């Protein structure tokens, strides 16, 4: 899956999970500050990414993902070949 | 609770067994964990099946992170993700504070409090995903009143109440409730070992004037895990013949 495609999918998942407008889910958006996610929202979001992209994201890595772009980077780098 | 997957820790004997059987009667699939007594766990399984439900038993120590991982993996394989968790596994190592050994303190805290923590953490991911879950932690009136000779046990059971309230707050808006049940003195092997004199003294503090039956605790657990109890969370329900009135 290409980077743009991953971004689109993550936008969709994020909007759905956090109940925000897809237009607000820009690459620079911070899940916590801009999209008003709390800790549990973030855990759920990570779980959804794991499911949708068929990967496991360890807790140490998940904690470093704070913006939409970081999520896209992580998925792009770790998606199954 | 029809068709729900329930896990009762420490389900081999006593209150845990009664809870397992009661949930079975409500139509749940019941997984039972136990630490040591194979025979007792088999008897629980027999009673659960007799009540018309599927049952699987899992041996392991709830205080061990590896055992808890294996337990939840096993239940998931047998029945699917746990939807109803009853943290019942508990132990006592009574001694007065002045004589208490580190090992006695640690063992009780490990099983009762850490075990509840490990199992709760393990179950939450699936419950959050499902947007539905019921957690019932078995505390004790001793956690509310204290008891001479049980500082370790009282600390663990009071700790469970604080943990229950915190977890309840964290996941309340995900359709998950967490409550504690605090039994008073119940007829089990744990209390069967008490001398007549001590039993008399205990009964003096129980307005109802008798020991409780394990089934009377199980009944309250069954209520709390039902769909009808969705608006009750973070509570500690005493089932104690009126010892504690709050």
Would you give an account of this structure?
The complex is a heterodimer of chains A (81) and B (246). By secondary structure, chain A is mainly alpha-helical. Chain A has one domain: ACP-like (Non-ribosomal Peptide Synthetase Peptidyl Carrier Protein, Chain A), CATH 1.10.1200. In chain A, 57% of the residues lie in helices and 0% in strands. In chain A, helix 1 (3-18) packs across helix 2 and helix 1 (3-18) packs across helix 4 (68-78). The longest helix of chain A is centred in the first third of the chain and has 16 residues, at 3-18. By secondary structure, chain B is of the alpha/beta class. Chain B has one domain (5-239): NAD(P)-binding Rossmann-like Domain (Rossmann fold, 3-Layer(aba) Sandwich). Chain B is 48% helix and 15% strand. Chain B has helices at residues 14-25, 38-50, 65-79, 102-130, 141-145, 151-171, 189-192, 196-203, 214-225, and strands at residues 5-9, 29-34, 55-59, 84-87, 133-138, 176-183, 236-239. Chain B has a seven-stranded parallel β-sheet, sandwiched between helices. The longest helix of chain B is centred in the middle third of the chain and has 29 residues, at 102-130. The mean pLDDT of chain B is 96. The A-B interface holds A 40, 43-44, 47 and B 125, 128-129, 170-171, 174.
Secondary structure elements and their pairing?
The complex is a heterodimer of chains A (81) and B (246).
Chain A: H1 3-18, H2 39-53, H3 59-62, H4 68-78
Helix pairs in contact in A: 1-2, 1-4
Chain B: E1 5-9, H1 14-25, E2 29-34, H2 38-50, E3 55-59, H3 65-79, E4 84-87, H4 102-130, E5 133-138, H5 141-145, H6 151-171, E6 176-183, H7 189-192, H8 196-203, H9 214-225, E7 236-239
Parallel strand pairs in B: 1-2, 1-4, 2-3, 4-5, 5-6, 6-7
Helix pairs in contact in B: 1-2, 1-9, 3-4, 4-6
InterPro entries (chain B): 3oxo_ACP_reduc (IPR011284), KR_dom (IPR057326), NAD(P)-bd_dom_sf (IPR036291), Ribosomal_bS16_CS (IPR020592), Sc_DH/Rdtase_CS (IPR020904), SDR (IPR050259), SDR_fam (IPR002347)
Pathway (chain B): Lipid metabolism; fatty acid biosynthesis
Active site (chain B): 153 (proton acceptor)
């Amino acid at each position: 899956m290409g980077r743009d495609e991953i971004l689109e999918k993550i936008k969709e998942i994020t909007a759905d999970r956090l109940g925000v407008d897809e237009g607000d889910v820009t690459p620079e958006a911070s899940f916590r500050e801009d999209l008003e996610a709390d800790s549990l929202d973030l855990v759920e979001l990570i779980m959804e990414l794991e499911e949708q992209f068929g990967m496991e994201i360890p807790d140490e890595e998940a904690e470093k993902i704070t913006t939409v772009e970081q999520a896209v980077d992580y998925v792009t780098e770790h998606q199954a070949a | 609770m029809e068709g729900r997957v329930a896990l009762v820790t420490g389900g081999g004997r006593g209150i845990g067994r009664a809870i397992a059987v009661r949930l079975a009667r409500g139509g749940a699939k019941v997984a039972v964990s136990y630490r040591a007594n194979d025979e007792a766990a088999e008897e629980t399984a027999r009673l659960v099946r007799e009540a018309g439900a599927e049952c699987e038993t899992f041996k392991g120590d709830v205080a061990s992170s590896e055992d808890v991982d294996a337990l939840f993996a096993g239940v998931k394989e047998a029945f699917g993700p746990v939807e109803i968790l009853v943290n019942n596994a508990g132990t006592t190592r009574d001694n007065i504070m002045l004589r208490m050994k580190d090992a006695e303190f640690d063992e009780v805290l490990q099983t009762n409090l850490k075990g509840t923590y490990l199992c709760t953490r393990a179950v939450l991911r699936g419950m959050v995903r499902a947007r539905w879950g019921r957690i019932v932690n078995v505390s004790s009136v001793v956690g509310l009143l204290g008891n001479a000779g049980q500082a370790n046990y009282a600390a663990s059971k009071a700790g469970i109440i604080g943990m229950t309230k915190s977890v309840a707050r964290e996941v309340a808006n995900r359709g998950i409730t967490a409550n504690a049940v605090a039994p008073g003195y119940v007829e089990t092997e744990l209390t069967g070992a008490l001398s007549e004199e001590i039993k008399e003294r205990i009964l003096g503090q129980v307005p109802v004037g008798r020991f409780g039956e394990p089934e009377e605790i199980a009944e309250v657990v069954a209520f709390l895990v039902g769909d009808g109890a969705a608006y009750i969370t973070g509570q500690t329900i005493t089932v104690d013949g009126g010892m504690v009135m709050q």
